[in-house]
């Protein structure tokens, strides 16, 4: 059964860091693009970053996180990471990882990131 499980969220002060993890099962992680999305309270879910399949591992970032967030993957551990540095209150959101397979979007349940002093 295909499954994505996010972890690593929490409460952090402005300027702090967190590393989110997305553990994948039920499919070959190295063959697919994996994305991180976030949804702030009362707002739409938006793409944050994505990483290509292991062939070239190209990455993309939304403008507001460019230079602060880094996406990576460990195919042996079947996990995709999102290292988040220099966090600010605008980064507060539920963070989700995503797989699009055969036109169907698969989501985990998310992990909550709260940036507050």
Can you walk me through this structure?
The structure is a single chain. The chain is an all-beta fold and 117 residues long. It contains no helices and eleven strands. Strands 2, 4, 5, 6, 9, 10 and 11 form a seven-stranded mixed beta sheet that branches. The chain is globular, with a radius of gyration of 13 Å. The protein starts with a strand and ends with a strand. The mean pLDDT is 94.
Mean pLDDT: 94
**Strand-residue fraction?**
over 45%
* Structural class designation: mainly beta
Q: What is the straight-line distance between the termini? A: 40 Å
Outline the biggest β-sheet. 7 strands, mixed
Give me the number of helical elements: 0
**Strand-and-helix sequence, N→C?**
EEEEEEEEEEE
Poorly predicted spans: none
The counted number of beta strands is: 11
Please estimate the helix content: under 10%
Please describe the structure with a list of short key phrases separated by commas or semicolons.
single chain; 117 residues; mainly beta; seven-stranded mixed beta sheet; four-stranded antiparallel beta sheet; 0% helix; globular
């Amino acid at each position: 059964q295909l499954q994505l499980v996010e972890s690593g969220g929490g409460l952090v002060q402005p300027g702090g860091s967190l590393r989110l993890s997305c553990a994948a099962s039920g499919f070959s992680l190295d063959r697919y693009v994996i994305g991180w999305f976030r949804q702030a309270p009362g707002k739409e879910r938006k793409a944050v970053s994505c990483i290509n399949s292991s062939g070239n591992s190209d990455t993309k970032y939304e403008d507001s996180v460019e230079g602060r967030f880094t996406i990576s993957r460990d195919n042996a551990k079947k996990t995709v990471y999102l290292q988040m540095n220099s966090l600010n209150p605008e980064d507060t959101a539920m963070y989700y990882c995503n797989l699009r397979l055969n036109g169907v979007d698969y989501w985990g349940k998310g992990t909550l990131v709260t940036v507050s002093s």
